[in-house]
Amino acid sequence: MKKMRFVLFAVAAMAAASCAKELAPENGKENTPAANLVPMTFTAGTEATKVALQEDGKTLHWEATDQLKVFDGVSNELPAFTTTESGASVTFAGQVSDGAAGPFYALYPYQAAATFGASTITTAEYGDVITATVPAEQTAVAGGVPANAFIAAAVSDNKDNFTFKTICGFIKFQLSEEDAAGAVAVSISGNDLAAIAGDVEIFFSKAGTEAFGQDYVRGATKDYVTLTGSFKADTDYYFAIRSNKFASGFTMTIKYADGSCKHVTTTQAAPQTISRNMVMNIGKPVFKAGLPNDLYIAWQHGLDIDVAGQTFNKATYGDAKLIKKDDSSSTAGVYIIDSGFTFKTNYQAVTEPLIIFGRYNDRSSGLTIGKIHKLGGANALIAYKGLNVTWDNNNQPFQVTADSECIVMDNCNFNHIRNTFITATVSGASSVLKNVGVTNSEIKINGTNKAAAYIFLSSHTGNGIESFTFKNNVVYFVPGTVTAMTDFKAIEVKSGTSGDVIIENNTFDKTTIPNSAFVRIKTLNGQLVIKNNLFNEVNLTTMNSGLLGITTTTGTIPTSGEVSNNFYYKADTENTYKLGLATAGLDNLTKKYSPQLALDPILTDWDPANGKFGIAETITYYNSGSGQNITVSTAGVGAQR
């Protein structure tokens, strides 16, 4: 931290000429390139910083690498003033416009994009302003303030003296040895997402005698600050922020080199506003492993967010837009929907990433799919997380029209599904969807919309997928105009190829499992894993001898995987329906027939639409080999809620 006093000394009279093209005026002042310059030197001193919250004062020194940006009222493009010295008092050398009479204005550290001009706010108090940036990305400095974030400004009184004022307040913290090991970034945000970094206008009084105050340039703010670098345990570090109170508390996160993270969130407001030149010491916070509850803060802090096995972050996909009202869009991007609001996406021809999360990952944020998403292109992908999802039409919500990246979803509630969920059925085309993943979600098949046959993923005419993952989901049928389903397929790839197929720990309620097509794939090049699934009240009217109908129509069959520990219940039959492996040659798989349960595993409070998943603690089935009833825990069977 530096609160700096500059003293202006000798002015040389020798002029230096240069040529440059003219630029248009900016902010009411001439933005003339530096021409006809004269040498000038500044002698800069320091004074002890004013600190608060019982912090000790300290004196900081200039470094030989420090630079100033000086404004002379004629040009915004003067060369940087530099020093080759270090210490409490050093000399800066540079040039100002020939004939400039002052007062002179200065900004530390040097920012090439900084400008000087008239205030955009017309009041009797505000005079000229320096427009500068409090950076959101700062470099961690052990025991000190980041050099690029120690923003200070000054105006000369008589061309001889500058008294600098710092613009930022500071948050001081330490990390424990455990928290510091492997850390590459530490970030902070107010829970109210107040602007703590970004472009600012530094106001000077109308008389031009002092730095009067500051405000943000609209639309150019940041709601986070991130320190990057390596971190030492039990060592002071500082965030530099614009004046803020953190009225709703704050969230800090740590990102590690291996992609993992920790967080700490407090809802307590700071005891007073962290104003300019003030230090708030928060000591050594106690962090928890994992993401914070607020996914918007997690994203802005650059943390990795998992969606069904795929990783998404700001470094790859850019800043997120926070949706804080009912809104809609027809474009790609990263959207995070605040709790209680609904966002409608009409992005139809999906060629770029469409990433939509609920802010708190609790499905309190609504998403409406207004048009069918038609994915086509190497960058085409869709990722949903923590949402309550509906759509406006009775067609399938997702289509693949050309090679595309992925469709992945986690912790979502899907309402009113009528037909195929994802389809790749482009006539005459051959496309590959790299990854499909759905995890920790509820999928409602609505009989009111006349859903009788349903396919989660259907791929035809040469199209295929590289991997299909379906884990820890509840799929349930709600009777309506159609009272019972006639067909349910998890995945059907009729003429394309597939990589790994993983269907694990799901609960299927009142869905029909056809003998030949629960999984139907022509060429399966990866492993096949279907295990720990629970099928309740399945409609067996179309069944022959197998419960799970796994078929590879022709071509390659899987050579590794596991099909075991699946269970079903049907009240009105005593037949023993086995795990139907319709294709020969699957002997390399671990296989176990799917037994019928003696009792209904679904309890009376089963109501997935309202978040109730009443499942018996144990299930009992008859083991024909031993001739005995076997009771097992449901802790590892079906969707875990």
Structure, described:
The chain is an all-beta fold. Helices cover 2% and strands 44% of the residues. The chain has an 18-stranded parallel β-sheet that branches. The protein has a ten-stranded parallel β-sheet with strand order 26-28-31-34-37-40-43-45-48-51, with no helix packed on it. Strands 9-17-14-19-20-22 form a six-stranded mixed β-sheet, with no helix packed on it. A hairpin with a 7-residue loop joins strand 7 and strand 8.
User: Which geometry do the CA atoms define?
Assistant: elongated
The helix content is: under 10%
Give the radius of gyration. Answer: 32 Å
Strand content: 35-45%
Number of strands: 54
Low-confidence stretches: 1-35, 45-60, 542-548, 574-580
Structure characteristics:
mainly beta, 18-stranded parallel β-sheet, 54 strands, elongated
Summarize this entry quickly.
By secondary structure, the protein is mainly β.
Topology:
Blueprint: E1 3-11, E2 37-47, E3 67-71, E4 81-82, E5 90-97, E6 105-108, E7 115-118, E8 126-134, E9 137-139, E10 152-155, E11 161-163, E12 165-166, E13 169-173, H1 177-180, E14 183-190, E15 197-205, E16 211-222, E17 225-228, E18 237-241, E19 250-256, E20 261-266, E21 279-281, E22 288-289, H2 295-300, E23 305-307, E24 310-312, H3 314-317, E25 321-323, E26 327-329, E27 333-337, E28 342-345, E29 349-350, E30 354-358, E31 365-369, E32 373-375, E33 381-385, E34 387-391, E35 398-400, E36 404-410, E37 413-417, E38 422-424, E39 432-439, E40 442-446, E41 453-459, E42 464-471, E43 474-478, E44 487-504, E45 507-509, E46 519-524, E47 528-531, E48 534-536, E49 550-552, E50 561-564, E51 567-569, E52 590-591, E53 618-623, E54 628-633
